[in-house]
């Protein structure tokens, strides 16, 4: 069955794009002076989300779940469970790590990554 989905992905040109098992759906926008990453994370709290930036790699991890309690045997049905999703993406150019910001509202995480300045600037070099 998995092979059929992979074949369909090849036919429609969607291989490697979009949702992945254990992943999350996200959009990456390239604005003039910044990248904006928007990720759907419904059912999580702000404290469940960890974001890290190492060089040009942005990693988003979200973990939540119902805590196991002493009285678990009292449940007739238990469908809510621990959930963990993560996604790592490579940014196409350097960002100003000290100016990165993130906001989580109504199940949507928005990470704003200002592009690093100075990449295209020229510098005069004195010859000794």
TrEMBL record:
This is HSP20 family protein. CDD domains: ACD_sHsps-like. Residues 17-128 form the SHSP domain. Residues 1-20, 64-97 are annotated as: Disordered. It comes from Haladaptatus paucihalophilus DX253. Belongs to the small heat shock protein (HSP20) family. Gene3D superfamilies: 2.60.40.790. The lineage of its organism: Archaea, Methanobacteriati, Methanobacteriota, Stenosarchaea group, Halobacteria. Coiled coil: none annotated.
């Amino acid at each position: 069955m998995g092979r059929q989905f992979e074949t369909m992905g090849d036919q429609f040109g969607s291989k490697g794009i979009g949702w992945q098992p254990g992943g999350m759906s996200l959009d990456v926008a390239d604005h003039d002076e910044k990248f904006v990453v928007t990720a759907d994370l419904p059912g999580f709290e702000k404290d469940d989300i960890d974001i890290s930036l190492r060089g040009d790699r942005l990693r988003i991890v979200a973990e939540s779940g119902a805590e196991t309690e002493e009285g678990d045997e009292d449940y007739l049905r238990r469908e809510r469970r621990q959930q963990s999703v993560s996604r790592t993406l490579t940014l196409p150019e350097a960002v100003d790590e000290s100016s990165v910001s993130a906001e989580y509202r109504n199940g949507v995480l928005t990470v704003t990554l200002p592009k690093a300045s100075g990449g295209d600037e020229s510098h005069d070099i004195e010859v000794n």
